[in-house]
């Protein structure tokens, strides 16, 4: 007798990125496909010291079950971390620790989405967001973006028309777009939240990975200047891209009622995020090593982003167009078809594998009306020489 799976699974499919990884076993392949930080950037010594300190000073708490809301010393450190970035009046009680920021998205799906509810996301947006929200039955509406992030006039029109359950945005160096929402648009997003009484979700895993000038303050930091907006704002953060994905430490800041519901749902799924990981992260932040780690990471990624941009312009010329990233991990590009070259991202991806280089076609990042000519390239895990060689192979595939 065939298994009768839940009908909610009819709305989702396996990640196109995860499927692509199955093709990366070919020897010598250069991968621009993953969204991973470079393991060479991990502060192994600092993390080792944090582990040792946690086991020396608080072994019982580090190895024991913990509160669903999170390990309080970590929540205190995270509140201070956010306050240093301009978030006012933030207490540890206003957040819960999540198993990566992706669990925050899952908790939003569980607490907020009923089958058929409309949710506005950017077009393109984080692939796992599309999969997660669809799993809970959301009808996703795409809001167009440009180099300055979501186009707020079009976002307003979509909010007025569809009256969504909430709006999900990655304002700072979005995945996959790399776009950065400018200050004027950030303020307008908060005004729209109040005007239409619509919940805004700010996902911010990349905001600390800027290359030159710091980005505008987060929506959460700016909410103090827009009366009523803080009560309509969820902020998801993560240490995955700046410290270690393996720790699986993220956090969610939300209105009290939503936070209580999310805590209840988290109890059902994992009881709490690993106390060992939380205690390690708490000791790391307490030791004051994060600013130095971020400075190093920013420098390395800035060099690689510049190298990739220069190589793309040199090797592919007018067959590709993109905005040079100012932070994050990705170049988001569009094939123009100039000179009769390939214009379909999926077709180029197949050819590229044969040439020994991999990237992710852009279509899966759209909830609707995908731009088939787009692609995402990550510069994070390849050094400058590999980037130049890989882009050369990409030109051969084109």
Notes on the structure:
The protein is an alpha/beta fold and 398 residues long. The chain contains 14 helices and 14 strands. It has helices spanning 16-21, 44-57, 59-63, 72-83, 100-112, 127-135, 152-162, 183-196, 219-222, 256-269, 275-286, 290-316, 345-355, 384-397; strands at 30-31, 95-99, 118-123, 139-146, 149-150, 166-169, 199-203, 233-238, 249-253, 320-322, 330-335, 357-358, 360-361, 374-378. Strand 4 (139-146) and strand 5 (149-150) form a beta hairpin. The chain is globular, with a radius of gyration of 21 Å.
Taken in chain order, the helices and strands follow as HEHHHEHEHEEHEHEHEEHHHEEHEEEH
Give the end-to-end Cα distance, rounded to a whole number of Å: 48 Å
Low-confidence stretches: none
The proportion of residues in beta strands is: 15-25%
Q: What is the mean predicted local confidence, pLDDT?
A: 95
Task: Please identify the structural class as seen in this structure.
Answer: alpha/beta
How many beta strands in the DSSP annotation? 14
The number of helical elements comes to 14
Q: Helix coverage percent of residues?
A: 40-55%
Q: What does the radius of gyration come to?
A: 21 Å
């Amino acid at each position: 007798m065939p298994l009768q799976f839940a009908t909610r699974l009819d709305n989702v499919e396996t990640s196109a990125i995860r499927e692509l990884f199955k093709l990366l076993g070919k020897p010598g392949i250069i991968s621009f496909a993953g969204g991973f930080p470079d393991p060479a950037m991990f502060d192994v010594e600092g993390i080792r010291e944090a582990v040792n300190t946690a086991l020396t000073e608080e072994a019982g708490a580090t190895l024991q079950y913990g509160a669903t809301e999170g390990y309080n010393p970590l929540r205190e450190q995270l509140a201070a971390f956010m306050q240093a970035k301009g978030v006012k009046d933030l207490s540890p009680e206003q957040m819960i620790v999540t198993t990566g920021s992706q669990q925050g998205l899952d908790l939003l799906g569980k607490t907020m989405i009923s089958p058929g509810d409309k949710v506005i996301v950017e077009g393109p947006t984080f692939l796992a967001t599309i999969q997660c929200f669809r799993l809970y039955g959301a009808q996703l509406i795409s809001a167009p973006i440009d180099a300055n992030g979501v186009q707020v006039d079009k976002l307003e029109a979509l909010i007025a028309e569809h009256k969504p359950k909430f709006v999900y945005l990655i304002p700072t160096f979005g995945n996959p777009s790399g776009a950065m929402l400018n200050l004027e648009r950030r303020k307008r997003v908060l005004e729209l939240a109040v005007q239409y009484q619509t919940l805004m979700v700010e996902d911010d895993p990349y905001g600390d990975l800027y290359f030159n000038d710091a980005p505008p303050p987060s929506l959460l930091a700016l909410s103090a200047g827009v009366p009523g907006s803080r009560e309509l704002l969820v902020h998801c953060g993560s240490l995955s891209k700046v410290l270690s994905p393996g720790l699986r430490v993220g956090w969610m800041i939300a209105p009290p009622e939503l936070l209580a519901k999310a805590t209840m749902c988290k109890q059902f799924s994992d009881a709490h995020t690993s106390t060992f990981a939380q205690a390690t992260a708490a000791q790391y932040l307490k030791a004051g090593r994060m600013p130095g780690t971020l400075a190093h990471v920013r420098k390395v990624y800035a060099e690689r982003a510049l190298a990739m941009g220069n190589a793309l312009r040199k090797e592919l010329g007018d067959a590709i167009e993109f905005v040079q990233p100012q932070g994050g991990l990705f170049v988001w590009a569009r094939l123009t078809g100039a000179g009769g070259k390939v214009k379909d991202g999926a077709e180029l991806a197949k050819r590229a594998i044969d040439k020994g280089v991999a990237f992710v076609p852009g279509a899966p990042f759209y909830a609707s009306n995908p731009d088939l000519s787009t692609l995402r390239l990550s510069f994070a895990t390849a050094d400058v020489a590999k980037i130049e060689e890989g882009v050369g192979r990409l030109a051969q595939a084109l």
